[in-house]
Design a protein that fits this description.
mainly alpha, disordered C terminus, 436 residues, Growth Hormone, Chain: A, globular, 0% strand
Length: 436
């Protein structure tokens, strides 16, 4: 038993060093391509006449096509393997990001955001599913915190990088066009490295010894047998869609995404109101809340691992997010910025603390499409928040109502999370209808 435990620990350590850094880099590049339009809002308005409402709608349309193609993409990932499918996703989203440089008005802006969402669909839940196949249950929470730090790091890096790229002019292209081209091509180049570095299954990993492979595969199969004991047969997708737990997971993640993307797409605009700042300076200020959130993510992940009550920790950070977002709508631009720095502690930590809950509940045999479903429905918050904020700003000149609504949604999610189960129901108690 001792030898098996040592082999398992060795395998987990190797996986964290071999896979996690790559996933973090992938997520950084991915997230920059998704949210970099936040830095070019004024340029799109000046060069193409795209106003606040059109900008908000276009920013959000990404998440509509993302939601539509998310589940099919993850089903194809299971068929073709993580290595091939994640490489394909990176190439297509990179090319779509480059295409953003050539939009000519509202219609082409909408179309390219839809194309980008469809191209990227499947990446995030694909990585989440990858963890369920490579890491034991008690290791996934911290792995998710490390992986999700990529989005926070992307927000830190994207400001200075995008701000610097916006200063480029030449060859008949504006700075915002060069930004899209260079950041999009970075994804395409990285995809080549992913193809040579990533393995689809533990048995394919030549960097693991046979003993490490055996211990890891045995541990994950043991977890699956425990799930089998809680389910008479493999649950069908239809039965899980009727499971109230899945609805709860979607509602919680929808609320988290609302707050994250409401802040992400409008934070540069709030910073610009603080004074006469150039693009690079706006980018530097934009990095501050995300630097704070990285520390918070690791701190709360460590606390949740030590004092085990995942739902309570998620509720705690959601209330922090609610307080910050409400305060952001009550003062000056500088005060709003400080309040969002506080809110970032909550909404980024909530994102990483949430995923171990559905990971623990779901049957591994159907986890990939259901995780994709939760992510796609939840990420529709990325459509609702910017579209609503854009509409409110164009009609009222203020986003205060939107910030208050985000605070209310976070409080509601903090209550709902206590109804979420982190482990499968025991035989005879499952909330999902039984298949016979």
């Amino acid at each position: 038993m001792s030898n098996r435990a040592d082999a398992l620990q060795s395998a987990v350590t190797k996986i964290k060093w071999h896979v996690l850094p790559l996933f973090v880099v992938m997520f950084i590049v991915n997230y920059i391509d998704r949210v970099n339009i936040g830095f070019v809002r004024q340029h799109l308005s000046a060069d193409l006449g795209i106003g606040a409402a059109a900008y908000g709608l276009g920013a959000g349309l990404f998440f509509v096509s993302y939601a539509v193609f998310e589940v099919p993409s993850n089903m194809l990932l299971q068929r073709f393997g993580a290595k091939a499918w994640l490489t394909r996703i990176m190439v297509t989203w990179g090319l779509a990001a480059v295409g953003m440089a050539f939009v000519r008005g509202e219609t082409s802006f909408y179309v390219m955001r839809l194309v980008l969402g469809a191209a990227e669909a499947g990446f995030f839940p694909g990585v989440v599913f990858y963890f369920t196949q490579w890491l034991p249950r008690d290791q996934r929470g911290r792995a998710m915190a490390v992986f999700l730090s990529g989005s926070a790091l992307a927000s830190v890096f994207s400001g200075p990088i995008s701000g610097a790229l916006l200063l480029i002019e030449g060859h008949g292209l504006h700075g915002w066009q060069w930004m899209f081209i260079i950041e999009g091509m970075a994804s395409v180049v990285l995809a080549g490295f992913v193809w040579f570095w990533l393995d689809s299954k533990p048995r394919d990993a030549k960097w693991l010894t046979r003993a490490e492979q055996d211990a890891l595969v045995d541990e994950i199969e043991t977890e699956q047998r425990q799930r089998d004991a809680a389910h008479i047969v493999k649950p069908s997708m239809l039965s899980l869609l009727r499971d109230p737990q899945i609805v709860i997971f979607c509602l919680i993640y929808f609320s988290v995404s609302l707050t994250i993307y409401g802040a992400t797409f409008w934070l540069p605009s709030i910073i610009r109101k603080m004074g006469h700042l150039n693009d690079f300076q706006v980018g530097l200020f934009n990095s501050i809340p995300w630097l704070i959130s990285i520390v918070a993510m690791y701190l709360f992940a460590a606390l949740a691992a030590r004092f085990k009550f995942q739902q309570a920790w998620v509720a705690c950070v959601l209330l922090i997010a609610a307080a910050g977002m409400y305060a952001a709508g009550t003062g000056s631009a500088a005060f709003s910025f400080i309040a969002i720095c506080f809110a970032a502690i909550g909404f980024k930590a909530a994102s990483s603390l949430f995923w171990p809950i559905p990971q623990g509940y779901l049957d591994a045999r159907i986890a990939a499409p259901v995780i994709a479903l939760i992510n796609s429905i939840g990420n529709l918050g990325g459509f609702v928040a910017p579209a609503t904020f854009g509409f409110l700003e164009q009609k009222t000149g203020s986003i205060q109502g939107g910030l208050t609504a985000l605070a209310v949604m976070s409080v509601a999610a903090a209550v709902i999370v206590f109804f979420a189960r982190m482990t499968p129901a025991v035989r005879g108690e499952s909330l999902a209808p039984r298949t016979r």
